[in-house]
From TrEMBL:
Secretion signal span: 1-23
Superkingdom of the source species: Eukaryota
Entry annotated with the keyword Signal: yes
Name of the protein described by the UniProt record: COASY isoform 10
Key words of the record: Signal
Amino acid sequence: MAVFRSGLLVLTTPLASLAPRLASILTSAARLVNHTLYVHLQPGMSLEGPAQPQSSPVQATFEVLDFITHLYAGADVHRHLDVRILLTNIRTKSTFLPPLPTSVQNLAHPPEVVLTDFQTLDGSQYNPVKQQLVRYATSCYSCCPRL
C-alpha cells in the first residue's frame, strides 16, 4: 500500500539503459506513491561524491521524446498515479539555450518523498547518496518540509 500522496522520481541512468528497467521502476514507485508522481529526467547525473549535483539541460532529442512516450505508456498500468514529467530542464535544439531557472520551482502537490533509479557501485543506497538526492530535489523543486 502506498504511503505518500506525492513523490518526485529523479531518473539518473542514461536513457538507453533505463528503458528496459522502466516498468519495474514505475511499479516500485507506485507502491510508495498513491496520487501524484513527478518525474525529473537527469540522465548521467551522479549522486556520489562531495560536489552538490546541479540540474543541467537535457536536449530534447528523439531518444528523449521516445523515452517520454514509453514512460507515459508504462505509467498507464498504474491508473491510481497521476504521472507528470517535469520539463524544466528539457531544452530544444537551439544555438541559444537560456539558463536553467535558479529559483525553486513550485509544484501543484509538493513531493513528500524523493525516489531515484541511481544505484551505488555496491548496490546500496547509503546515507550520503540520500542526502545528496534530498539536497538536489529541494534545490530544484518545492518539497514538503519533512521530505
